[in-house]
Write a structure and sequence with these properties.
- By secondary structure, the protein is an alpha/beta fold.
- The protein has a single domain, classed as Rossmann fold.
- Helix content is about 40%, strand content about 15%.
- It is built from seven helices and seven strands, in the order βαββαβαβαβαααβ.
- The chain has a seven-stranded parallel beta sheet with strand order 3-2-1-4-5-6-7, with helices on both faces.
- α3 links the parallel β4 and β5.
- α1 packs across α7, α2 runs parallel beside α3 and α3 runs parallel beside α4.
- Bound molecules: NADP nicotinamide-adenine-dinucleotide phosphate (NAP).
Length: about 240
């Protein structure tokens, strides 16, 4: 029987690493993002999650796949996200809406169509952040959206009681990806300072979060859990 992993944002970073590990584990893997996944063998469904119409089209195409393939299990990984530099005092509504569209509404649009088609033994995994539970300066809309993902995961867990689908919020720490580099730049001194903020003095690697994602799918006992993947952050 086919096992399907649907990973949003598998064109780079954590999503690409997760797609590769699912593929190596024998899953049929679908990437949902604007660019293709760099891993050969992953099926691309290119689309823009910042556009509600595109999300509806992607959800319909994915529904068709699930109906045709009748998978024995599905792992739906909500990984794609947008992070802007903004603040509470100066964030335009349009800008906040754009972040919420990608980080929250798109998840809802995919869940609404796909959850009813996912068999018992499936999972829905949200890739949150350390910023799902705490805030830092200058990332207002991202912090708001990542906190909302925590509520969404918990509410989804409650609404799926008895269905046999488990859920979790996986919260990476500073992970060496495009998103981090775009946010903090490429200055090695800054990277060093950020690396020093955890117990191992280095950035998390995307492959480490990928292993956590695949593990979370195969262990329903963690249903409703928040899983931290941050090498042990220094608390201030
Ligand atoms: N890196 C970190 O330090 C860190 C820390 C905590 C949490 N996270 C979380 O980890 C997840 C993965 O991020 P990453 O670090 O791996 O970043 P990344 O390498 O920049 O990947 C982000 C992914 O999101 C996709 N995406 C963004 N906007 C999209 C849109 N409008 N439509 C479709 N796809 C879109 C991108 O695909 P396209 O550009 O091809 O569309 C890309 O594949 C995110 O949820 C992020 O919040 C990361």
């Amino acid at each position: 029987m086919t096992r399907i992993a649907i990973v949003t944002g598998a064109s780079s970073g954590i999503g690409a690493a997760a797609a590769e590990l699912f593929l190596d584990s024998g899953f049929y893997v679908i990437n949902v993002s604007r660019r293709p996944c760099p891993v050969p063998g992953v099926v691309d469904m290119c689309g823009d999650l910042s556009n509600a119409g595109s999300v509806a089209e992607l959800a319909a195409t994915l529904s068709g796949h699930l109906t045709d393939k009748k998978p024995s299990e599905v792992c739906l990984v909500h990984n794609a996200a947008l992070m802007l530099k903004d603040t509470a005092a100066a964030t335009e509504d349009d800008s906040l809406s754009r972040v919420l569209q990608i980080n929250i509404q798109a998840i809802n649009g995919l869940n609404r169509e796909l959850l009813p088609l996912m068999p018992s033994g499936s999972s829905v995994l949200f890739i949150g952040s350390t910023l799902s539970e705490k805030a830092v300066k200058g990332a207002f809309s991202y912090v708001v959206s990542k906190h909302a993902q925590l509520g969404m995961m918990r509410a989804t867990c409650q609404d799926l009681m008895g269905v046999g689908i488990h859920t979790a919020l996986i919260c990476p720490g500073f992970t060496d990806t495009e998103m981090l580099r775009n946010h903090i730049g490429h200055d090695e001194q800054v990277i060093g300072a950020i690396s020093a903020m955890n117990s191992f003095g280095r950035l998390v690697q995307p492959e480490e979060i990928a292993r956590l994602i695949v593990w979370a799918h195969t262990n329903p006992v963690i249903n409703g859990a928040v899983l931290h993947g941050n090498l042990g952050q220094v608390e201030h």
